[in-house]
Amino acid sequence: MESYGSITGLNLIGILAGAGIFGGIALYALAAVYAERKVSAFIQDRLGPMETGPKGLFQTAADIIKLLLKEHIVPTAADKILFALAPLIVFLSVFAGFSAIPFAPELVTAPLNAGLLFIVAIISIELVGILMAGWGSNNKYALMGAVRAVSQIISYEIPAALALLAAVVMTGSLDLQVIGGAQSGPLGLLEWNAFKYPHLFLAFLIYFTTILAETNRAPFDLAEAESELIAGFHTEYSGFRFALFMLAEYANMLLLSLLAVIVFWGAGNSPIPNILGVNLHQWTQGDSGSISGWLWSIFWLLSKSLFLVVVMMWLRWTLPRVRPDQLLVICWKYLVPCSLVLIGISAVWQLIRIYT
Amino acid sequence: MNILEIIFWIFGLGILAGAGLVAYSGNLIHAAGGLFLTLFSIAGIFVLSGADFLGIVQLIVYVGGILILILFGVMLSRKNSGEVIAPGRINSGLSLAIGILLAGLMLAILIPGEYEQSFPENAPIHTNGSTASIGVQLLTHYLLPFEFVSFLLLTTLVGSAWLARRKPAQPRDLLQSESPQSNT
Question: Max CA-CA distance within chain A?
Fold first, then answer.
């Protein structure tokens, strides 16, 4: 019973951290939806939202208020329980993944020993939610969208995990803090996994391709194919439940980008090297453990991840959708063999390092 | 009752409720949902007992793999969504006897009280090096079973790819191309 106080105290901090992360995700999703509209508009030579607020800045906030006020419409023939549970499961699985993300050294809500594996595992729970949504809607387009989404995500999880494994073999740990810490150093950018080891840059490219497929975004948006399937598994959803699906999609983009940055792009480490004896790296990194060090880490981690999110939007509005057979060929004939070869290179590299 | 025990009871009841749903629900999809609850709660119990790696693997293998496979099988093989299957009662006397026997066995183990072990004082999340020790054990002490299992899995992989391949046209099929059986 002595442990009662300390454990509840710990959980109070955990609850606060969870609420903070949730608020952060919600704010980020607002900004990301606005950014997506603007990016798509500029790529297509339009202006995008301009009416609500300066430059249309409050457009997504207004949309969210509209969604929250809308009626929950449940189809008569729907499976009520599955229909109601599905958006919660989809969002909670993505949200749980954020618990293992170290935002700065020692600043992580769940310091798991196998954090990388945990994130890969927890995202797969999303699939159950997607299938429940597609099935519970009792709509053939929704079901087809769900089956397409799940089969696509399942097959692209394999090259994603193998590409991550190539980096894990080089670092020798599944702990995200250790992986991030191993990429710090005065050389800045050149200490990151993707640039320190040339073959891991290819692994990064493979992983980034699979991120696009796992979030069901163009060029891999066959599951949402609005011209054939209307909108995929969330066709029948309205109001807050639809908002949860959108929140989960954007949160998933951020989560997978964070993982890519932590594993390949040096986590929270500054990209600027020391040049000619000037300590540029230390100036932009802060001392580890101090408040400024934490803030710099969070700043670099988030700006690199958000850059990747913007690249995902840019690709979505640039590339045409792939055909189903191309989807399979890209995964099984190119990405999987390439990532296997990269793991082999990593293993040989480590062997040479041990025996020399 | 500290918070870890409360979490333990939540997961424990989740396992039982999910198992009950699997056994007694007439709707196959609801039964699969119950299976999800059970498997997820077992992963939670693993993490609670300090076996975080095992819990994560439980999620990957059972929830992410086997459960999805079962759901796909149910969805693709059954045309009517709302078809209700009455839970069968085959050999109810025998199953009752086996159930009572198993319950008695477990109670006989649990009642003497040797297992009234409370949870460790600190949160069990910080167990260090579980991945490393599992890896070292697999490649040293348990190398032979590990190799056997990987060989078995490789065989299954090759076998399923062979079964799912597009069959090349046999010379005999080409000769009998008028008959309706050969147009596979």
Answer: 71
C-alpha gyration radius of chain A: 21
Nearest CA in chain B to A2: B121
Pure H helices in A54-192 = 59-69, 80-97, 115-123, 125-136, 140-171, 176-181
Cβ(A120)–Cβ(A161) below 8 Å: yes
For B:134-153, CB contacts with A below 8 A are: none
How many whole angstroms separate alpha carbon A163 and alpha carbon A206? 7
Listed in sequence order, the residues at least 6 apart from B3 whose beta carbon sits closer than 8 Å to its beta carbon are: A4, A7, A8, A11
CA separation for the pair A91, A265 (Å, rounded): 26
Cα–Cα dist A34/B140, whole Å: 54
What are the pLDDT digits (tens) for A124-173?
Answer: 888 888 888 888 888 888 888 888 888 888 889 889 999 999 999 988 88
Q: How far is residue A145 CA from its own chain's centroid?
A: 21
Residue B113 — pLDDT band, cuts 50, 70, 90? low
Please report the number of interchain residue pairs, chain A to chain B, with beta-carbon separation below 8 angstroms.
Answer: 93
User: Each residue of A45-93: pLDDT tens digit?
Assistant: 888 888 887 888 888 888 888 888 888 888 887 788 888 888 999 999 9
Question: Cβ contacts (< 8 Å) between A131 and chain B: which residues?
Answer: 68, 71, 75
Can you tell me the distance from the alpha carbon of A138 to that of A147, in angstroms, rounded to the nearest whole number? 13
Give DSSP secondary structure letters for B104-169: HHHHHHHTTSTT-PPPPSS-GGG-TTHHHHHHHHHHTTTHHHHHHHHHHHHHHHHHHHHHHSPPPP
Name the residue of chain B whose CA is nearest to A85's CA.
Answer: B33
Q: Which residue has the tokens 């066709």?
A: A235
Q: Which residue spans within chain A are E strands per DSSP?
A: none
Class of residue A153 by CB neighbours under 10 A (exposed 0-12, middle 13-18, buried 19+)? buried
Q: What percent of chain A has pLDDT over 70?
A: 95
Give the C-alpha separation, A167 to A263, whole Å: 7
Distance CA A204, CA A194 (A): 7
Q: Please, what is the average pLDDT of chain A?
A: 84
- The conformation of residue B181, written as its DSSP 8-state character, comes to G
Q: Which residue of B has its CA nearest to A138?
A: B81
The end-to-end CA distance of chain A, in Å, is 54
Our measurement of the distance from residue B172's CA atom to the centroid of its chain's CA atoms, rounded to an integer in Å, reads: 44
Task: Please tell me the number of Cα atoms within 13 Å of B61 on its side-chain side.
Answer: 8
- The C-alpha of A174 sits at a distance from chain B's nearest C-alpha, in angstroms, of 8
Distance CA A351, CA B13 (A): 48
DSSP summary character for residue A153: H
Residues of A within 8 A of B36 (CB-CB) are 128
The model's pTM: 0.85
